[in-house]
Specification:
mainly alpha
Length: about 160
């Protein structure tokens, strides 16, 4: 960027450009720490808030999807085998997962996560025993619901502990 030549014009332009760049860098170095001090705390709190909102959305999506899978499984059990208990249980537990997602979304995060953990534990035990009776055959509605409830419970437990 800096070239040396014997002509007098280049030396004067060189000194002019050096003084101009020094004054710019000096003003930048003075204003930059002030701006970081001023906005650093806000940036940190905004970043933390964004992380909490992402975790909240994760919990809403996971519980919502689990609720849909469980409700759909209950509906399929009713359609294929005319099983009213499957329909009732599927809609009940699917509705409880949806309620957990609703609670997390509406500023009752802990209550929603606790509900999701309880529903997941109950479903994992009930459907896990049924799946065990089928010798863990896949694909099986009992196996799918067991796996979904275990994953949902683990996710909700993780979010509760953090």
């Amino acid at each position: 960027l800096i070239s040396l030549s014997p002509s007098p014009f280049s030396l004067s332009s060189l000194s002019l450009s050096l003084s101009l760049s020094l004054s710019l860098s000096l003003s930048l170095s003075l204003s930059l720490p002030l701006s970081l001090e001023k906005y650093g705390e806000n940036y940190t709190s905004l970043k933390k808030k964004a992380g909490e909102q992402k975790e909240e959305m994760d919990a809403v999506v996971v519980n919502g999807v689990a609720g849909a899978v469980v409700a759909f499984g209950g509906l399929m059990g009713f359609i294929k085998a005319n099983s009213k208990p499957s329909l009732i249980a599927g809609l009940t537990f699917g509705g409880l997962y949806a309620l957990a997602a609703y609670l997390v979304r509406n500023n009752q995060r802990q209550n929603g996560l606790y509900l999701a953990i309880g529903v997941s534990a109950l479903l994992a035990v009930m459907m896990g025993r049924k799946w065990q009776g089928l010798n863990f055959k896949m694909p099986s509605p009992a196996g799918i619901v067991t796996i979904v409830s275990l994953l949902t419970g683990i996710n909700s437990l993780y979010l509760t502990l953090n």
